[in-house]
């Protein structure tokens, strides 16, 4: 931890997001049936506190300049991304490997569009980020679901089972590292195994690494391209500052593609769409990926560790309920199967009694049938309140 990381960044001052066209908070009633006036939104993965001061200053400087016209020269932006990957994740990348998409969701959709055919099956390991399912199906492709094996309180790979589930027509594997929703940090050996699995089955490996900056002490995130460099010719890494710095609304993400042939195919598709990212997104990412941004990210991780400890203590005190120990991310994956209740009953108690809107476990595929995902990137007081409400909603189990 640097000296800068000890400066007093504020993660506990409430910011009112209702009435700001915020998808996380302004859809509580319509989407979840949770009252907007006192409901707690804990579903979509963005945070409720202000972003880093250096990011705010960069945005304000552009506003003060007063002009938002066409722009050129992405060198500072790409240098900042390279600096971040090298200093934070020991990954040396070249500036020309970086292509910009309109956020990570758009990047996933672009990859599906460029490297798969309509109707083709695409492999994923579940439970996993629900947008993988949605993006694949929206594009008119099919999902080949390969379940992870739950070993105690941790998901493990079962590549023999996955091999048996492939149809033989898959030419793409979409991978999640660190894993969402479980917060699992994959080891170097596991990453190499996944890359070898993709190679054996002639699949392009799309690796979503957007939660790379939320790894807690005792674990180390390794980029796929670092762990499995031998498979660089088939690997596309998706990254963004959007989760780390809560700037998803800037719609700026990256596809890092070392292989010239793969990169050329994506560049051609972007040219055909006349696509480029936005000025404020470039400015804010460049400011975020800096020493001051790193200090803020370190402080945020400490805040999140405290939130996780508070939340886990509260939900684990409910008989039959267990929060999976988080190695990474700010998304608590909570298993309610020990209550003996149906999903509908669990969901009713959480949404109607506790007035909390988490992400629905079944949306994450096999393994999520009796689980819910709770976003803990908020103020400490809100996490404490959520824990108390959940205990009250399941008080009859005490």
List the helices and strands and how they pair.
Layout: H1 28-32, E1 40-42, H2 53-65, H3 75-89, E2 98-101, H4 104-115, E3 121-126, H5 130-138, E4 142-147, E5 149-151, E6 154-156, H6 159-165, E7 172-176, H7 188-200, E8 204-208, H8 224-227, E9 235-239, E10 253-256, H9 260-272, H10 279-288, H11 291-316, E11 322-323, E12 331-335, H12 343-353, E13 356-360, E14 371-375, H13 380-393
Helix pairs in contact: 2-10, 3-10, 4-5, 11-13
Major beta sheet, specifics?
Answer: 7 strands, mixed
Distance between the termini: 41 Å
Helix content: 25-40%
The portion of residues forming beta strands comes to: 15-25%
Cross-sheet strand order for the largest sheet: 2-10-9-8-7-3-4
From the alpha carbons, calculate the radius of gyration and give it in angstroms.
21 Å
* Topology pattern, helix = H, strand = E: HEHHEHEHEEEHEHEHEEHHHEEHEEH
pLDDT < 50 stretches: 1-6
| Class per helix and strand makeup | alpha/beta
**Secondary structure tally, helices:** 13
What general form does the structure show? globular
Can you count the beta strands?
14
The mean pLDDT is 96
Please provide a written account of the structure.
This protein is α/β, with parallel strands linked by helices and 398 residues long. The chain contains 13 helices and 14 strands. A hairpin with a 7-residue loop joins strand 11 and strand 12 (331-335).
Entry keywords:
398 residues; alpha/beta; 5-stranded mixed beta sheet; 13 helices; 14 strands; disordered N terminus
């Amino acid at each position: 931890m640097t000296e800068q990381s000890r400066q007093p960044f504020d993660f506990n001052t409430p910011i009112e997001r209702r009435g700001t066209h915020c998808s996380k908070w302004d859809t509580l009633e319509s989407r979840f049936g949770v009252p907007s006036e006192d409901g707690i939104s804990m579903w979509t993965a963005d945070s409720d506190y202000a972003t880093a001061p250096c990011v705010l200053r960069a945005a304000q400087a552009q506003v003060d300049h007063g002009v938002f016209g066409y722009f050129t020269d992405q060198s500072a932006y790409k240098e900042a991304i390279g600096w971040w990957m090298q200093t934070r994740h020991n990954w040396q990348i070249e500036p020309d490997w970086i292509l910009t998409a309109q956020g990570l969701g758009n990047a996933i959709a672009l990859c599906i569009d460029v490297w798969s055919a309509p109707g083709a099956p695409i492999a994923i390991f579940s439970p996993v980020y629900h947008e993988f399912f949605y993006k694949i199906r929206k594009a008119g492709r099919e999902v080949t679901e390969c379940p992870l094996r739950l070993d105690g309180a941790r998901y493990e790979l079962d590549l023999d089972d996955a091999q048996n589930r492939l149809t033989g027509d898959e030419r793409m594997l979409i991978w999640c590292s660190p894993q969402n929703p479980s917060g699992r940090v994959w080891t170097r050996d596991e990453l190499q195994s996944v890359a070898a699995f993709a190679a054996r089955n002639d699949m392009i490996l799309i690796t979503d690494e957007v939660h790379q900056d939320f790894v807690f002490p005792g674990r180390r995130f390794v980029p796929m391209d670092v762990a499995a460099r031998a498979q660089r010719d088939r690997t596309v890494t998706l990254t963004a500052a959007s989760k780390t710095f809560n700037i998803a609304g800037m719609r700026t993400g990256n596809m890092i593609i070392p292989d010239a042939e793969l990169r050329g195919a994506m560049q051609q598709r972007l040219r055909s769409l006349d696509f480029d990212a936005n000025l404020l997104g470039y400015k804010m990412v460049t400011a975020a990926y800096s020493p001051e941004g790193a200090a803020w990210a370190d402080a945020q991780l400490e805040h999140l560790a405290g939130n996780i400890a508070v939340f886990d203590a509260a939900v684990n005190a409910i008989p039959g309920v267990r929060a999976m120990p988080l190695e990474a991310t700010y998304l608590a994956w909570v298993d309610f199967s020990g209550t003996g209740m149906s999903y509908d009953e669990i969901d009713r108690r959480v949404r109607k009694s506790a007035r909390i809107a988490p992400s629905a476990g079944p949306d994450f595929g096999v393994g999520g049938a009796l689980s819910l995902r709770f976003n803990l990137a908020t103020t400490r007081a809100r996490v404490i309140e959520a824990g108390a409400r959940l205990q009250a909603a399941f008080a009859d189990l005490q």
